[in-house]
Design goal:
The chain has 451 residues and is α+β, with helices and mostly antiparallel strands. It contains 5 helices and 25 strands. The strands form 5 sheets. It has a 7-stranded antiparallel β-sheet with strand order 2-3-6-7-13-9-10, with no helix packed on it. The protein has a 7-stranded mixed β-sheet with strand order 17-16-18-23-22-24-25, covered by helices on one side.
């Protein structure tokens, strides 16, 4: 399956960029009852199960399911799925039952996937999943990254359809699907007072982190620079990865091994390795980095409505992979990414932000185990101003090739000030036949912008 006008960073390792696998898993999970060690009480409509370090699933037939990846918990833990009865009022527009996952506040080392059923006849306009942290705590808030689909749950009765909302979470709460939801972006602004700097606006301004008032009122870093730690604008063309002392490694969604090729699950490992390489390089310059790994499913990391980072200027965010699994990559692509990838049938066309065609190829011929394309980009979040480094491959082998290239070619250039590009490089990679990414491969820069 293919999509048109896909912004670069879409993450086509799914061979078409779709997250359909998520929806398919949700259907299978909701279909089966009593999987593994779970026990379902049909009268009380609860499901209780013991989960552990191994992958597992818990089902509340026809209502909800929980998928737990390997390593999400380190010891045996009892969990419950049930119809919820929160003390807070159920939101207006609810189209599903309230599902309560307990113990509330359970923290996972890796995000779990939660699936909730709603009527297939529901108007698909502005669907959303809302969460309530505890039975008595409000308000209900939106869950980011939820997907929605209508499908047949019972293969013996394919005419029976239901809606399925699927999303990731790092903890347990109460959840409900609502229709007609008005998405409101997260705001951290506070009303201007006599005790804060406002720069002629109605809100308090932090000169150390505001990309439009960086270090001083009116000092806007614009789209060609970023507000670095300490409150000063740095042009992207001369920026170094050590300018900000704090780097966040953003972990995105990774599909289960039972659904896709295992190579799709390597992004997280490669992120960690790349972050370690960056920290090592910066330490040699006397500018040590603080590396913090976060997951997009954590609350307070990405805006649940827009996918924008809630991490502010003065920090760097490292993204490995595209918007197929990285919500932040999708947000950046929609807010002015330096490159756009258009896909029609089997044709792939890279275009610049201005619409100029940079490269085109047929996917069946170009994306192989020994040949691929990838992009390295350096851009500033137009909202809160964090510097974003993104390394992204088009096919199966593109991302590991990009990691090698970035670590061994790009990082030394940035640190030495010899970089010949400003915000992106589009690179064609060809293996030399040994099946290993190394200096003997061909690394052809087919497009880049110049300082």
């Amino acid at each position: 399956m293919h999509e048109t006008s896909i912004p670069l960073g879409r993450g086509l390792r799914s061979r078409g960029g779709s997250r359909r696998w998520v929806m398919t898993v949700a259907a299978g999970a909701l279909l089966a009852a009593g999987c593994g060690s779970s026990k379902t009480n049909s009268t009380l409509q609860t499901a209780v199960a013991m989960i552990g370090p191994a992958p597992s699933r818990v089902d509340l037939p026809g209502l909800a399911s929980l998928q737990v990846p390997a390593g999400a918990v380190s010891t045996a833990t009892s969990v419950t799925l049930a119809l919820g009865k929160p003390a807070a009022a159920i939101p207006t527009g609810a189209v599903s039952k309230v599902i309560s996952l307990t113990p509330h506040g359970t923290q996972f080392a890796a995000p779990v996937t939660i699936n909730i059923a709603y009527p297939a006849t529901t108007d698909p306009t502005n669907l959303a999943v809302l969460r309530l942290p505890d039975d008595g705590d409000g308000p209900w808030t939106q869950v980011g990254g939820a997907t929605f689909s209508v499908m047949a749950l019972d293969p013996n009765n394919p005419s029976t359809l239901t809606g399925v909302a699927s999303f990731e979470s790092m903890t347990f709460s109460n959840y409900v699907v609502v229709g007609g939801h008005s998405c409101k972006a997260t705001s951290t602004q506070t009303a201007c007072t006599s005790s804060c700097q406002c720069c002629g606006t109605a809100y308090c301004v932090d000169l150390a982190t505001d990309p439009h008032n960086c270090g001083a009122c009116g000092n806007d870093c614009g789209s060609t620079g970023f507000c670095a730690a300490g409150g000063h604008c740095v042009p992207l063309a001369t920026a170094t990865i050590c300018e900000n002392p704090s780097t966040y490694v953003m972990q995105g969604a990774l599909p289960p091994l039972s659904i896709v090729d295992p190579k799709q699950t390597l992004d997280g490992i490669m992120e960690t390795n790349l972050a370690a390489a960056l920290a090592g390089q910066c330490s040699t310059l006397g500018a040590p980095l603080t590396i913090t790994t976060v997951n997009q499913a954590q609350t307070g990391i990405l805006d649940p409505c827009t996918g924008a980072p809630l991490i502010t200027a003065g920090n760097t965010i490292l993204l490995v992979g595209g918007s197929w699994g990285q919500r932040l990559a999708a947000y950046l692509a929609g807010s002015g990414a330096p490159l756009v990838l258009n896909v029609t049938s089997n044709s792939y066309v890279f275009k610049s932000r201005a619409g100029t065609t940079l490269a085109s190829f047929l996917g069946s011929q170009a994306l192989t185990s020994s040949h691929d394309y990838f992009v390295v980009s350096l851009e500033s979040d137009p909202g809160r101003g964090a510097l974003v480094l993104q390394v992204w491959g088009v096919g199966w082998e593109g991302t590991p090739a990009a990691i090698w290239y970035f670590t061994n070619r790009v990082v030394p250039q940035i640190l030495a000030g010899t970089r010949t590009w400003k915000s992106y490089q589009l690179v064609e990679w060809t293996d030399n036949g040994n099946g290993i990414k190394d200096a003997g491969d061909t690394w052809n820069v087919i497009a880049q912008d110049v300082p």
